[in-house]
Amino acid sequence: MWNGKRPILFGGDYNPDQWDDATIDEDMKLFEQAGINLLVLPVFAWAKLEPEEGKYDFEWLDNILNKIWEHGIHVFLATPTSAQPSWLSKKYSDVLPVDIAGRRRTHGMRVFFCVNSINYRSRARAIAEALAERYRDFPGLAGWHVANEYGTYCYCENCRKKFITWLKARYGSIEELNSRWHTSFWGRQIYDFDDVTLPTELNDDYRFCPAVQLDYMRFVTDSTIECYLNEAQVLKAATPHLPVFTNISGFIKKLNQFEMTPHMDFVGWDNYPAPGDDAAFPAFKHEIMRAARDGAPFLVAEQSPNQQNWQPYNKIKRPGEIRRIAYQGLAHGADSSLFFQMRQSVAGQEKFHGAFIAHSGFQTRIFREGCALGQEFKKLGSSFTGGRIRARAAIVFDWENWWALELTSGPTQDMDYLKQVFRYYKAFYTENIPVDIIKTTTKLDNYDLVVMPLLYMMKPGFDEKIREFVKKGGTAAATYMSGRADENDRCVFGAYPGPLKDVFGVWVEETDALYPEETIEIIMTGKEGDCSERQHTGKFLCDLFHAQTAEVLAVYGKSFAGEKEQECFYTGMPALTVNKYGEGHAYYLGCEPDESFMRQWILKLCEETGVKRLFAFEGKLELTCRENENGQYVFVINHGNSKGRVWLNEEGESPVYYSLLQDKEVKGVFTISPGEVSVLFRGRD
Ligand SMILES: [Zn+2]
User: Fold this and answer.
1) What pLDDT does 43 receive?
2) Which residues are catalytic?
3) Whether pLDDT at 482 is above 90
4) How far is the centre of ligand 1, averaged over its atoms, from the C-alpha of 95 (Å)?
5) What is d(CA 308, CA 201) in angstroms, rounded to the nearest whole number?
6) By CB distance 3.0 to 4.6 Å, which of 45, 81, 327, 399 could disulfide with 17?
């Protein structure tokens, strides 16, 4: 293990079970040359490690691990349990999952097992025990990586029975279950727990009852946690001093990671931005992952050194792109830059997925860029690892709200919670105003401003938290589709936003869904709290709401279908309001505004609450600051095509920073070239 602090972890997935000795020897030299300090293996090697039930073959792995350690490279040893061997699928009929249409699936995919299968869990635990026993004292062992990208939904009879047990524990009685699921609608009364069916029926008109689906998603999350712990507990018991975690798929919706990750020693997630993605989008996902363990540093467990293979059009990474992606993760709180994969596979589903060592070898642009990155990381060492980000503004993101909003039939088919919350995040990001994504369980004491976009599901206690926050002087901002349902998706009677009506001083009477081509004007009334421009555009959904004690800051103007004006009976109704409540303020926004409104509104809220941008800047720059015991580390990434400038001066002083990558002191106005990155250090005074 590393003595003292871990450096930036650099390396990634290596699958040597595919390669001969000569190739592995060549890889070791290349890894050393590239400055790789960590490999993750053997993620998919269960079939090779246990060719028959209970008969293990570890010698080949011993040899590879020894070679790796001879080159001074650490490992996260992976339990290979995301791809079970064929004998396991064949011998035990409960291992393969049953899909939503009731079909038992065939063997041959990865992450393709029932997480509740007793036989799967028993054999997974056994191989985890065998690995722990054999490698617990291996000197290069830096941690344990359990399985890979959990996320299979199974609908087998065993899962149904366990779901019933889960429901009994959660709700106690059949009466409570019927009440929670509101089964009197459509006469779906459940007389006996054994009558519970899984949400498998697909229908063109309606999805299965959303309350049942919601609970099934919670249950699958809990089952997956059990499945993870089944192995993790064995590993932790063998090596209590080493971290244990699993990597989270970049497509993160189906398992509630806010529930899963507290069971891990850190969050590790797989970052695969699509070509052409707004640079703010991966930044937003990093923030969600940082939120999962309340701001603790996390790992980027995978990213691609070059193109992916599974997107519709797999663009190769442009020169310098991977460096910006790697630093963006570090800038937002990651302590690693790990990649899938080190050597490109010869065949199989991912043969065209990028790698450090590609089919074309190592005399390549990508390998050279990887080596350059490795040299920089060596230089940075463990300087900023462990560093945290401080923010006075927060955006609430709730996983179960994500599920519930998108399970709901109506008011629009275009509901996309992630995209919606992203629009609010982007307003902060573009202005380089530090903002935390927070959970509904996060304490609000450290914040001056809390934005809660589309918080449809109001969990017990959260309304009180917001009430107290505003009463004590905080500023809260809520939007359309807020405060509508409880945690079982039962809507509130007495108008939205339910228990927070008095805090926001409004009540919502109806919500109109706009066609994609429809827009509505948002006209500022010109009072305090105004945006600087008078007229803006809204779309998506329009809450028709009434200001009771709130002041109206904007109203709906004319309505348009494309360019053509159309009749609109709610022209003149409030679109944005503010309510004074206790010592604080509560804003309510009725429709999805355009980007310029969003930017001006968020800037206004920040100005009112004293929330500041990190530095004044010019250009398409991304700025963040991580702090640890050494001091502050300011990350500057230039995503633009022209020079950017950062004003490092503070009121009345001109602090000196040290540019760690360029090895020079900087103060005053810092200039950064297009596409470049910098890390500026300022020690504790
Ligand atoms: Zn199952």
Assistant:
1) 97
2) 149, 302
3) yes
4) 8
5) 34
6) 45
